[in-house]
Amino acid sequence: MEPFDSFLVFIADFLGEHLYEGIFLAALIETVIPPIPTLAVFPTAGFLASQQGISLLGIIPMIILGGLGATIGTSIIYLIALKLGRTVLLRYLKNFRITEKKLERVEIWFEKYGDKAVLIGRLVPSNERNDFSTCRIIKNENS
Most buried of 6, 23, 90, 112 (most Cβ within 10 A)? Predict the structure, then answer.
């Protein structure tokens, strides 16, 4: 079994044993670690809740904990991007032949269209976590 697959199995097992804590941790982790899809966490939690016979009223804390975990995870990514920012980005972009001049062109474009790009980016599945770090790295306040 691939490491990623075994990690998803671990999340499913943890959710089964600790549903409420698991939703919080899974939402936090999937927000911080981009390859973990949201669609692997929340539908699994909903399925497990239905199998455990949790009432509709019992789902409300699950929603709150999932939102809280995702919010904290997004804040962590935002603060990492704020702290590391442009300097680290420029260091690693050189490996992909992206110069500071090209980055400045992106910043100018983002100043002009950033609000629309963030809105549309939030609607693209699996891309919802990338816009906050992008905005913070190029110091855009649209997020």
Answer: 23
Residues 39-84 pLDDT 10s = 777 887 888 888 888 888 888 998 999 899 989 998 998 888 888 8
Which bin fits 125, alpha (ψ -120 to 50), beta or left (φ > 0)?
A: beta
69, 59 Cβ separation under 8 angstroms: no
Q: How far apart are CA 133 and CA 39, in angstroms?
A: 21
Tokens of 90: 């420029």
Domain match, 7 and 67 both: yes
Q: Are 31 and 70 in contact (CB under 8 A)?
A: yes
Sequence-distant (≥ 6) Cβ neighbours of residue 68 within 8 angstroms: 24, 27
Same structural domain for residues 16 and 61? yes
DSSP states of 123-142 as a string?
HSTT-TTHHHHHHHHTT-TT
| CB 15 within 8 Å of CB 26 | yes
Of 14, 39, 71, the residue that ends a domain is 71
Tokens, residue 128 = 């919802």
